[in-house]
Amino acid sequence: MNRNEFNVEKIAKEFQFDGQYQKAKRNTDGHINDTFIVYFTKDDGKEQRYILQRINHSIFKEPEKLMENVMGITQHMREKIIAAGGDPLRETLNIVPTVDNKALYVSEEGNYWRAYLYIEGAKAYELPESAHQFYNVGKAFGKFQRLLSDYPAEKLHETIPNFHHTKLRFDALVKAVEEDVMNRAKDVKEEIEFAFAREHDTPILVDLLEKGQLPLRVTHNDTKLNNVMIDTTTGEGICVIDLDTVMPGLSLYDFGDSIRFGASTAPEDEKDLSKVWMDLNLYEKYTKGFLEEAGASLTKTELEYLAFSAKLMTYECGIRFLTDYLQGDTYFKIHRPEHNLDRTRTQFKLVADMEEKMDEMNKIVEKYMK
Ligand code: GN1
Ligand code: MG
Asked: What's the whole-number mean pLDDT along residues 352-369?
């Protein structure tokens, strides 16, 4: 078995799953963890599905602490969902414990596994199916932030320190260019130049945070469209998933990262850059949804930097892909040789497009400000 193959059936035996194991299917959407959908048949003959995931512990170095975070925040949200008359089995993640009643199973090879109930009747998307759907995604992330607005931030472990510290991400790129371990820098001069030309943007949000001009909140930090389950009947964003990076952060990180991924007209790894730009209509719908749910609690400074945050988060993600490309693709999973380079290029194309549209993006925020 190579490092990407696992005996899923054997691992599944370690969890309190109901019924008879049938099969497992790998889900390849995420770039970090290994995710499987496992199928069981219950005694009454009905199918029951679960999510079984290997946490990438070279990236999340303390999986136990990570699961403490997930337990704390899902419990907090569960209480609020119940109080509001919602369905806690669908509107938040539900951990399935191991046979020893733990949140994690550590295998003989030293891998960390956890399981969740599968959310039935819902689907995650790589591109929005419609602007209205993206509006619903904005509402879902806005609501997520609202539900966690009174969660004690000091209870959260920082699962990846300095995750959205754009300036440090920039420094990491500079180091990767200097070291050039794969001898690839010569082939990506244009991309490096594009990144270096925007160094002045990198300290803006972190400086405002340090000066106390932006509030620290409990944020998701990885608000990709495919991290929201969309109800297949109502079309609503029913549940926010992938809670591994929930940490104290800026609301701007969540808004910006959503636009980066979901307001793009093409997938993150599109090779044909003529297909890639930032769709202002999608941007507007998301802004409307997000502000409807979370807007009332945002400060004037947060609102002022909302549009900029979309550009900054896209730039940051681009420099992370470029850094990984230069370092030999050790962080993000790749499915073809230049995958990280293709991803870098879409992000930078989006950044350039947002720079041109910044005035309109700011006007849209003003339109939906309360
Ligand atoms: C990773 O695991 P996934 O695909 O949800 C990454 C995000 C990036 C994203 C880019 C822990 O998210 O920060 O924005 O890829 N997660 C981590 O698509 O680094
Ligand atoms: Mg994910």
From this structure: 97
